[in-house]
C-alpha cells in the first residue's frame, strides 16, 4: 500500500473541508489537522465537546480533540465503500457545542492497486470445440476478467500465449468495458493436431502490475475434408469364364484420414452418373443483436413477473447453428436477484424487489449463444423510476437543553439532519415549526437544518417549549414526518425581589417583651431556584444616635421583625427603617422597602400633679374669704400625664371633703370652686382629697390633698393649723422611740453572743493546759467546729447610736411674717431653738428653717448615704397657681443612727 499519497484539503465557502487519502491506510494514520484547517483553537474543541456525526453511524475516522487531528480509526476499502463509482468519498460532520457549530468534512478515498484482475471460474479451463473446417477470421469470444480497482489500476490489457492458429482481438463495449476474442488465422487440421492448449492473461495498469491467467483448451472437431485413398492406384485380376456368381476375384483396400463417420468407407463399382451436391452449413457466424445497447425504465416496487424489455439477436447460420439461447451475465449491484430473461424469447422480466433507494440504475449484459458455441453480447441499462414511497426522516444531531433565557437571537439550539431517500420532487423537503414560537429553521448544509432562536426569551413568562418540527416532501401525495423537542429554559438572575407592599406600617405596644415578633415583610422573586432564594437584611440606620440593630432584629429567612428591647412610647414614638431583600443569584439583585413601626402608647404612667405641690413636711392651704360667692375660684389642680391620646385625657373629682356641699372640682379643668355662698358657720379648716384619673384601660390615678382655710385674716388660720402640726410631731416622736428600742435590743444580743464565745475559748485553753501538765495519758480532743458568726451578720462589729431631735417649744417659727397674699398661708409647729429665722419678708420669704431644699453642695457636705423622702421633696417656697408663696413647716425630724442632723432640720 502506498502511504505517501498526497493529502489535500479544500475549504469551501460553506465551511466544508475536503481531504484526499489512499485506501487501506493503517489505523491511527493522520488524515488532516482539523483544528488548523477550520481555524479552531484546541481549547475550543475541548470546551465545545467536538465530536463526529455520521448518517449511518459508521466511523472510519476519529477526532483527537487534544491535538485537533483527524486520524483513521477503521479499515477503509474503497472497493467496498464505493464499488466502481468514481470519485469515491465519504462525508461526516464535526459538531461543537456552546455555541453550536457544524462543519462538514469530505474525505475522498483514492484507489490503490490492491486487487488483481480475476477471471470467472479461474480454477477450471475454458474449453472450446472448434471444427477444423472453420473458415479463417472467425472470432471466438473469450471470458472477460474483472478488476475491482478503478482508473489506471483497473484492467488494462489481455495477452494470449503464442500459438500458430489464433490471434487475440480486443474490443470495447459501448460502456467502455473491454472484451476479447481469439480469431482463427491458420486453418485447423485435426488430422495433424486434434487438441490445442494456451493461456489468456489479464493485466492491470497499476504499480506494481497485477495479472491473472486462465487456461484455454481447444478440441479440434473432425470435418470430412479427406477422401478415401486406395493403397494401389491400379488393381489387376484374372477370372475364368463362367465362373459362378459369388466367386471372390480380388480385394481392394482404401483408407480415410477423417474420423468417425467421416472415416467410414464403403466400396462400390460405379459408372457415370449425375451427382447433386448439397452444401451443409458450418457454424461460422455468431449471433448479432439488433442493438448494441438497450435502455429500459422500471418503476420501483414493480411486481414480480412484469415484462420490461425484449432483446433480439440473429444468426446467419442455418438449421441448428442458427438456434439462439439468451442469458444474462455480468450483473452488478444485485441485479441477478432482480432481473431474469426468457432464454428462448429474450424477454427480460422482474424477478425481485426493485428499490430506487438501493440502486437507481442497473446494468446487465445479455448474451446470445448459438448451438455451435458462438456468442454475441449486448448491454441493457435499466433506469429505476422513483415513486414517493419514503417519508422524510429526521435525525437530531445536536440539541442544547436547557437554554439560558439570556441567549441572544441567532443562537443555535439544535442541528437536524433531514433526508428523503426519494428523488427529485419526491425527495425535496419543506420543514416547518409551529407559529408563534420564538424559533426558526434555517438550512446550513445539504440536508442539515439549524433550529435558531428568533426572539428574546423570558423564562418567567414561558419556562419550557414543546417544539414540533414537521418535514414534508413535495411528492404526490406528499409524505411527512415530525419530531418533538422539549426545550427547557434555564433561569438567569434578571429579576430583583419585589416586596408585596410599597411601604410597610406596623404597630407594637410599648412595654413589650424583648424578642416579641412585630410583623413580617414578604418579597417574591420571579426567578427560579437559587436566583429566587431571598434573604432579608436591615439597612444600617441610626435612631436617636443608636444603631437600628439595638432596637429590632430581622430574621434573614422568614423576614420576621422582632423587638430587641422593650419600647417606651414616651421616649420613642416610631421607628423608621429600611429592609433589603436580596436574592441568591450571582451577582445578587436586591430591592428596598421602607418600614415604619409605630409604638402604641399604653397606660403605664399615672397622672402627675404639678400643683398643689405635696411637700410632705410643709402644710399648704388655700385661703378663701368668708365673703366668697358661688363659683369663687379657690385654686386649680394642675396635673399632666406623659402618656398620649386617651391615656392622657384627665378627669378630676373630689374623693373626700370636709364639706362636700361647699366645694366642687371641674371634671376636665381641675378648678376648685365654691358651690354655695360661704357662711360664718363653715369651719376654717377645709380638707379636700382630689383624685386625678386618666382615661386609659385600666385607668391610673393620682391623689392630691388640698387644704383650704376659710377665714378673712391670717391669725385665725394660724391657730387652727398649729394643732395639726403638733399631732404630726407626736407621731414622729413615737416612731423615733421604737427605732431606738429596736437598736438597743440588737446591741444587747450581739454583746451577749460575743461574751459567750470568749468564755468558750478561755475554757478550752484552760483544759488544754491541764492536760499538758498532768501525767494523764494524752487523749486527742477535737473540738467541734463552730460557725464563726463574727463579721458575717448584717450589722457591723461596733454599733454607735445617736439620736437627734429638735425640741418642740410649741412656739411658731414665723415671727413678724407678713404674707404677700391674704389667700395663702403656711402654718407649722415651730421649734424654740430655731436660730436661722430670717425676719425679712419684704417681697420674698427666702429662708425659713425646715422649709428649704438642700442644695447639691449641701447634700455633698452632709454624709447622708440615703437621704429620706423628707429630704428629697421640695420644702422651700413654692409658687401657687396665682403667684402666691407657700411655706413649708418645721416639724420634728428623726435622723438615722450614725448620721449628723442639721440643727434646722
UniProtKB/TrEMBL annotation:
<keyword id="KW-0130">Cell adhesion</keyword>
<feature type="domain" description="Cadherin">
    <location>
        <begin position="395"/>
        <end position="499"/>
    </location>
</feature>
<keyword id="KW-0732">Signal</keyword>
<dbReference type="GO" id="GO:0009653">
    <property type="term" value="P:anatomical structure morphogenesis"/>
</dbReference>
<dbReference type="InterPro" id="IPR032455">
    <property type="entry name" value="Cadherin_C"/>
</dbReference>
<dbReference type="Pfam" id="PF16492">
    <property type="entry name" value="Cadherin_C_2"/>
</dbReference>
<keyword id="KW-0677">Repeat</keyword>
<feature type="domain" description="Cadherin">
    <location>
        <begin position="63"/>
        <end position="119"/>
    </location>
</feature>
<feature type="domain" description="Cadherin">
    <location>
        <begin position="624"/>
        <end position="721"/>
    </location>
</feature>
<feature type="transmembrane region" description="Helical">
    <location>
        <begin position="735"/>
        <end position="760"/>
    </location>
</feature>
<dbReference type="InterPro" id="IPR020894">
    <property type="entry name" value="Cadherin_CS"/>
</dbReference>
<dbReference type="Pfam" id="PF08266">
    <property type="entry name" value="Cadherin_2"/>
</dbReference>
<keyword id="KW-0812">Transmembrane</keyword>
<dbReference type="InterPro" id="IPR050174">
    <property type="entry name" value="Protocadherin/Cadherin-CA"/>
</dbReference>
<protein>
    <recommendedName>
        <fullName>Cadherin domain-containing protein</fullName>
    </recommendedName>
</protein>
<feature type="domain" description="Cadherin">
    <location>
        <begin position="290"/>
        <end position="394"/>
    </location>
</feature>
<keyword id="KW-0325">Glycoprotein</keyword>
<feature type="domain" description="Cadherin">
    <location>
        <begin position="500"/>
        <end position="609"/>
    </location>
</feature>
<dbReference type="GO" id="GO:0007156">
    <property type="term" value="P:homophilic cell adhesion via plasma membrane adhesion molecules"/>
</dbReference>
<feature type="compositionally biased region" description="Basic and acidic residues">
    <location>
        <begin position="859"/>
        <end position="873"/>
    </location>
</feature>
<dbReference type="Pfam" id="PF00028">
    <property type="entry name" value="Cadherin"/>
</dbReference>
<keyword id="KW-1003">Cell membrane</keyword>
<keyword id="KW-0472">Membrane</keyword>
<dbReference type="GO" id="GO:0005886">
    <property type="term" value="C:plasma membrane"/>
</dbReference>
<feature type="domain" description="Cadherin">
    <location>
        <begin position="122"/>
        <end position="230"/>
    </location>
</feature>
<dbReference type="GO" id="GO:0005509">
    <property type="term" value="F:calcium ion binding"/>
</dbReference>
<keyword id="KW-1133">Transmembrane helix</keyword>
<feature type="region of interest" description="Disordered">
    <location>
        <begin position="848"/>
        <end position="885"/>
    </location>
</feature>
<dbReference type="InterPro" id="IPR013164">
    <property type="entry name" value="Cadherin_N"/>
</dbReference>
<keyword id="KW-0106">Calcium</keyword>
<comment type="function">
    <text>Potential calcium-dependent cell-adhesion protein. May be involved in the establishment and maintenance of specific neuronal connections in the brain.</text>
</comment>
<feature type="domain" description="Cadherin">
    <location>
        <begin position="241"/>
        <end position="289"/>
    </location>
</feature>
<dbReference type="InterPro" id="IPR015919">
    <property type="entry name" value="Cadherin-like_sf"/>
</dbReference>
<dbReference type="InterPro" id="IPR002126">
    <property type="entry name" value="Cadherin-like_dom"/>
</dbReference>
Amino acid at each position: 500500500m502506498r502511504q505517501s499519497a498526497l493529502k489535500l484539503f479544500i475549504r469551501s465557502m460553506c465551511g466544508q473541508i475536503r481531504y484526499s487519502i489512499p485506501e487501506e491506510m493503517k489505523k491511527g494514520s493522520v488524515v488532516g489537522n482539523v483544528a488548523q484547517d477550520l481555524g479552531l483553537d484546541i481549547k475550543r474543541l475541548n470546551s465545545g465537546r467536538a465530536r463526529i456525526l455520521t448518517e449511518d453511524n459508521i466511523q472510519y475516522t476519529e477526532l483527537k480533540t487534544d491535538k485537533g487531528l483527524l486520524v483513521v480509526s477503521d479499515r477503509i476499502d474503497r472497493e467496498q465503500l464505493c464499488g466502481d463509482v468514481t470519485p469515491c468519498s465519504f462525508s461526516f460532520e464535526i459538531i461543537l457545542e456552546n455555541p453550536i457549530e457544524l462543519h462538514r468534512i469530505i474525505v475522498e478515498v483514492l484507489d490503490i492497486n490492491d486487487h488483481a484482475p480475476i477471471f470467472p471460474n479461474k480454477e477450471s479451463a475454458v474449453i472450446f470445440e472448434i471444427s477444423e473446417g472453420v473458415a479463417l477470421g472467425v472470432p471466438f469470444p473469450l471470458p472477460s476478467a474483472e478488476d475491482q480497482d478503478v482508473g489506471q489500476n483497473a484492467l488494462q490489457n489481455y495477452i494470449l500465449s503464442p500459438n500458430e492458429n489464433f490471434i487475440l482481438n480486443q474490443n470495447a463495449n459501448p460502456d467502455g468495458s473491454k472484451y476479447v476474442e481469439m480469431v482463427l488465422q491458420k486453418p485447423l487440421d485435426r488430422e495433424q493436431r486434434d487438441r490445442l492448449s494456451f493461456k489468456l492473461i489479464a493485466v492491470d495498469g497499476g504499480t506494481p502490475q497485477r495479472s491473472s491467467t486462465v487456461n484455454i483448451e481447444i478440441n479440434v472437431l473432425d470435418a470430412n475434408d479427406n477422401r478415401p485413398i486406395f493403397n494401389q492406384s491400379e488393381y489387376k485380376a484374372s477370372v475364368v469364364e463362367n465362373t459362378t456368381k459369388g466367386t471372390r476375384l480380388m480385394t481392394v483396400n482404401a483408407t480415410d484420414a477423417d474420423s468417425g463417420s467421416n472415416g467410414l468407407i464403403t466400396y462400390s463399382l460405379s459408372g457415370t452418373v449425375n451427382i447433386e451436391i448439397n452444401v451443409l452449413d458450418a457454424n461460422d457466424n455468431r449471433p448479432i443483436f439488433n442493438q448494441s445497447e438497450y435502455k429500459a425504465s422500471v418503476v420501483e416496487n414493480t411486481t414480480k413477473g412484469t415484462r420490461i424489455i425484449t432483446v433480439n439477436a440473429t444468426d446467419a447460420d442455418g438449421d441448428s447453428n442458427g438456434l439462439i439461447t439468451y442469458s444474462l451475465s455480468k450483473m452488478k449491484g444485485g441485479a441477478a436477484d432482480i432481473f431474469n430473461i426468457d432464454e428462448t424469447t429474450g424477454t427480460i422480466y422482474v424477478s425481485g424487489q426493485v428499490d430506487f433507494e438501493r440502486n437507481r440504475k442497473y446494468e446487465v449484459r445479455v448474451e446470445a449463444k448459438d448451438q455451435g458455441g458462438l456468442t454475441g453480447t449486448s448491454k441493457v441499462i435499466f433506469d429505476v423510476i422513483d415513486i414517493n414511497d419514503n417519508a422524510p426522516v429526521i435525525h437530531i444531531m445536536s440539541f442544547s437543553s436547557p437554554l439560558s433565557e439570556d441567549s441572544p437571537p441567532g443562537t443555535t439550539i439544535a442541528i437536524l439532519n433531514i433526508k428523503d431517500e426519494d428523488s427529485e420532487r419526491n425527495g425535496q423537503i419543506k420543514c416547518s415549526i409551529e407559529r408563534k414560537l420564538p424559533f426558526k429553521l434555517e438550512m446550513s448544509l445539504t440536508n442539515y437544518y439549524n433550529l435558531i432562536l428568533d426572539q428574546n426569551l423570558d423564562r418567567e413568562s414561558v419556562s419550557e417549549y414543546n417544539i414540533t418540527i414537521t418535514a414534508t416532501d413535495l411528492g404526490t401525495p406528499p409524505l411527512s414526518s415530525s419530531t418533538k423537542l422539549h426545550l427547557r429554559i434555564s433561569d438567569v438572575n434578571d429579576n430583583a425581589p419585589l416586596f408585596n407592599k410599597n411601604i410597610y406600617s406596623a404597630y407594637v405596644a410599648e412595654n413589650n417583651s424583648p424578642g416579641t415578633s412585630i410583623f413580617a415583610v414578604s418579597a417574591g422573586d420571579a426567578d427560579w431556584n437559587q436566583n429566587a432564594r431571598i434573604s432579608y437584611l436591615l439597612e444600617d440606620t441610626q435612631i436617636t444616635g443608636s444603631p437600628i440593630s439595638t432596637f429590632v432584629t430581622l430574621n434573614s429567612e422568614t423576614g420576621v421583625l422582632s423587638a430587641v428591647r422593650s419600647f417606651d412610647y414616651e421616649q420613642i414614638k416610631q421607628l423608621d427603617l429600611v429592609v433589603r431583600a436580596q436574592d441568591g443569584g450571582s451577582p445578587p439583585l436586591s430591592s428596598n422597602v421602607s418600614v415604619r413601626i409605630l409604638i402604641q402608647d399604653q397606660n403605664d404612667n399615672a397622672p402627675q400633679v404639678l400643683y398643689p405641690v405635696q411637700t410632705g413636711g410643709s402644710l399648704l392651704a388655700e385661703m378663701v374669704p368668708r365673703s366668697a360667692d358661688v363659683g369663687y375660684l379657690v385654686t386649680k389642680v394642675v396635673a399632666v400625664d406623659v402618656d398620649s391620646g386617651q391615656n392622657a385625657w384627665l378627669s378630676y373629682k373630689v374623693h373626700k371633703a370636709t364639706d362636700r356641699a361647699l366645694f366642687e372640682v371641674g371634671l376636665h379643668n381641675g378648678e376648685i370652686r365654691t358651690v354655695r355662698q360661704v357662711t360664718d358657720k363653715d369651719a376654717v379648716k377645709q380638707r379636700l382629697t382630689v383624685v386625678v384619673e386618666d382615661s386609659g384601660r385600666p385607668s391610673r390615678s393620682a391623689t392630691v390633698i388640698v387644704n383650704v382655710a376659710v377665714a378673712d385674716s391670717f391669725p385665725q388660720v394660724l391657730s387652727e393649723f398649729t394643732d395639726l402640726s403638733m399631732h404630726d410631731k407626736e407621731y414622729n416622736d413615737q416612731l423615733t422611740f421604737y427605732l431606738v428600742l429596736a437598736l438597743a435590743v440588737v446591741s444587747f444580743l450581739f454583746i451577749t453572743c460575743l461574751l459567750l464565745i470568749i468564755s468558750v475559748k478561755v475554757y478550752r485553753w484552760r483544759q488544754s493546759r491541764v492536760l499538758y501538765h498532768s501525767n494523764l495519758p494524752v487523749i486527742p480532743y477535737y473540738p467541734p467546729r463552730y460557725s464563726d458568726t463574727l463579721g458575717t451578720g448584717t450589722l457591723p462589729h461596733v454599733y454607735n447610736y445617736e439620736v437627734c431631735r429638735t425640741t418642740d417649744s410649741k412656739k411658731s417659727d414665723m415671727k413678724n411674717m407678713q404674707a404677700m397674699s391674704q389667700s395663702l398661708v403656711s402654718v407649722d409647729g415651730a421649734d424654740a431653738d430655731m436660730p436661722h429665722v430670717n425676719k425679712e419678708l419684704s417681697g420674698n420669704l427666702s429662708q425659713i428653717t425646715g422649709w428649704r431644699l438642700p442644695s447639691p453642695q449641701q447634700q455633698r457636705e452632709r454624709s447622708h448615704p440615703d437621704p429620706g423622702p423628707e429630704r428629697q421633696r421640695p420644702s422651700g417656697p413654692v409658687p401657687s397657681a396665682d403667684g402666691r408663696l407657700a411655706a413649708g413647716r418645721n416639724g420634728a425630724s428623726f435622723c438615722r443612727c450614725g448620721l449628723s442632723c442639721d440643727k434646722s432640720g
